[in-house]
Amino acid sequence: MARFALAVFCIAALAATSSAMTFTEYGIDTACTAYDAVCWYETLKNFPKTNSKGFGKCGTTCSQMKSQVMKYDEPKQKEYFGKFLAQHGFGSIPSQYSTCESVLISGATETSDDESDALRDGKQEYPFRAFAYCMMKALRSKHGDKAIEAVKAEKTHSKKHWMETLLTRDNEFRALHGSPPLKRISPLNKAAQEWADKNAAECNSKHSDRDAAIRQWNGKGTGESLSAGGGPDAPEDAAYIASDGWYEEISLYPFPAGIKDANDPRFHDVGHFTQTVWKASEYVGYGYAYNPNCSPFTHYITARYSVAGNLAGAFQENVVPPL
Prior knowledge:
InterPro entries: CAP_dom, CAP_sf, CRISP-related. The chain is α+β, with helices and mostly antiparallel strands.
């Protein structure tokens, strides 16, 4: 939100300084805000039909297109950005948004739509305004007002803390299986953060030892889920990628028979899912760390659960099909 406010300020100050953001750059930024919001909602936010891997195909597309065109003069920025994003951006989002492609290529300002509140643009006129409004209108048409409200609550008007995102999303998934909501507590937060920091420092997404002191709480072991990804420091998005990705393993879980223990060869592919919905787990803690010097992963998430899930012989009673 701070960056968006800066953009608005720069537009207002165009007459005062030659170094301020141009209308074209502001338009490109706002177009990216709209495109990124659609990508985010369709792949990460849309519950329960998430596609965390799909976010990797569109999550940085618009920023990459901007970086390619900003070396040109302003007329070519406008011309090339629309063409580049049309060519590379629409294949990664649902086909309903293709109706916005023509106004993207034209860079049109004029539009009869009004999505100024969703984008917080003060109803100004700028290049690609028609495209930005079209994308928000298409999002609303497909998913209803709840989608626009989600964009406002987590992208354009304010941000949701990554830890709140993880807890809320994990509990949403748990509710689908009749599991009680987890409670986040500081001792598990501290332990999870220490391990996330360690993994980031070592550029290595590695599980801690089950018997290690850092895995113990109240005299018992805790469960652990990890997530690692590349790209810029965006903990809010990383939180959705982690929780959604863990739960998406449900597609590989052998309902109704289930599995018996971690020795089952299928466990490797479903262990995050089973820990997420494990009924007996009551408490959780989360850690997030970022290291731009790591490759290919730059951000690291750790979740710690108590009581630990994935206990031998207890899968049938703790991992049930969606209600």
